[in-house]
Amino acid sequence: IVRSRMEQEDLTLRGYRFKEFYGDRMLLLNFEYHARLIDEIFIPTPVLFFDWGKTSPRSGDPEFWSGRPFQSNVGIGFKFGSYLRFDLAKAFDDNPVRFTFRFSRNF
Predict the structure, then answer these.
(1) Rounded to an integer, what is the distance from CA 28 to the centroid of its chain?
(2) pLDDT at site 61
(3) What gap in Å lies between CA 75 and CA 101, rounded to an integer?
């Protein structure tokens, strides 16, 4: 599965299908470690990441914390400069490994 994500679409769990989770309320944590070896645009920077989150179909849902479980995934990526990134992510369930790429300016 290949997909492109633009900057405004980065709030997602990378180990799941794009827009698999949706709602009016969301909690998402992304942890990343960038192992920058050389800061050149043509030399990839390895990235390890962990995503954890959950959505609710409506605001003020009293079962947000006790309802569906939180979802999570881990992965590895390669970042080329500040604009191009490739990620492989695996969710902690039966979902297959997902490949994503992104072409956008990052911090």
Answers:
(1) 9
(2) 76
(3) 13
Please, are residues 56 and 64 in contact by the beta-carbon 8 Å criterion?
yes
User: Mean pLDDT per segment of 10 residues, for the chain of length 107 residues?
Assistant: 41 85 86 84 89 84 80 94 90 94 74
pLDDT value at position 74?
97
HEC string for 17-64: CCCCCCCCEEEEEEEEEECCCCCCCCCCEEEEEEEEEEEECCCCCCCC
Residue 35 burial by Cβ neighbours in a 10 Å radius (0-12, 13-18, 19+): exposed
Give the pLDDT score at 7: 38
5-29 exposure pattern, b = at least 16 Cβ within 10 A, e = fewer = beeeeeebbbbbeeeebeeeeeebe
How many other C-beta atoms are found inside a 10 Å radius of the C-beta of residue 89?
22
